[in-house]
Amino acid sequence: MFSVGLLVFVAAAASAIEVNNIQQLENAKKGNNKVITLKNIQVPAGQSLDLMTNLKPGTTVEFAGRITFGFKLWDGPLVKIKGKNLNIVGKPGHVIDGEGRRWWDGKGQRGNRKPNSIYVQLEDSKVTGLYLKNAPAWGFSINGCKNTHFQQITVDNKDGHTKGALNTDGFGVAASRNVRITNSKVNNQDDCLALQSDCDHIYFENNVCEGGHGIAVIGGYGNPKPITNIFIRGCQVIKNNIGIRVKTMRGGKGLVKGVTFDNIVLKDISDTGIMIMGNYYNGGPNGNPTNGCPIQDLTINNVRGNVYKNGTNVRIVVANDASNWKWNSNVAGGTQKRECKGAPRGVRVPC
């Protein structure tokens, strides 16, 4: 009986491994390890923590302790994750620490090169509980994902408000299908969510966005493929300059169809509560809106809250190709009136 128990114990132990330095990681991925725990790793400058190559389907990867990175002016990413049927887990007390202050210069993308933090390309997978602190640039770049759920994620860049961070988007999503981001928190200096072209059935639900530039759906930026069936629900946007917005590029091509903002609370927005624009260029509204990337089947429902006195509650500047909007909002406090043109006929917008 003792020998049988020992064999069972050895087999179980062989299916899990703890990795404490980057050199051990490749062997861990090549072995028959069902669970790989990354603990207190110091990643050399200019290298990615590579969970992209040789990571077998069905693997659980755990982040434990403090994960840090050497300093280099480069594009990153600091961590790259790719695969199918993966379970990526943040253990209690862990931190993926980008130590962004080493790169921050108050200029964002226009300044020194800064690495993006976590690049993710997953199918049929789950990412739970990751804590990213002080990202040098973008937080999570979600690209080419399918049937993947991100939950209980924290992007904590609040130190950057006083130390020169800029363009630290929380979640950037592109070319993805059936992706959920739920019960997560972002404190940053750019878009909380930046959702771009070639996306379908993206769900951003029960999340808290603080300190940044709000929740943005961005059409016609580079890739002309459409954005369809986007559901942003149950979120709070706190102390951002913008609350929620759909923006299409001036001169861009594509389609934004089926975007729903439902049950969104805006609190202490400094510039604009709700912004729908078709003339985004060089960082903001610029010139006349253009046709080519229409905003169709847009639903604004139960979007409510306050804008600071010098701000604008609702601002719309789109061309004449918008259609089938539904609007129900109660955003108050802003006294500055700006453009309100291009909404489909019959839609009452409280600009």
TrEMBL record:
GO terms for biological process: cell wall organization; pectin catabolic process. Keywords: Cell wall biogenesis/degradation, Disulfide bond, Glycosidase, Hydrolase, Repeat, Signal. Gene3D superfamilies: Single-stranded right-handed beta-helix, Pectin lyase-like (2.160.20.10). Residues 1-16 form the signal peptide. GO terms for cellular component: extracellular region. It catalyses: (1,4-alpha-D-galacturonosyl)n+m + H2O = (1,4-alpha-D-galacturonosyl)n + (1,4-alpha-D-galacturonosyl)m. Pfam families: Glyco_hydro_28 (PF00295). The keyword Signal applies. Its EC number is 3.2.1.15. GO terms for molecular function: polygalacturonase activity. The keyword DNA repair does not apply. It comes from the Eukaryota. Belongs to the glycosyl hydrolase 28 family. This is endo-polygalacturonase.
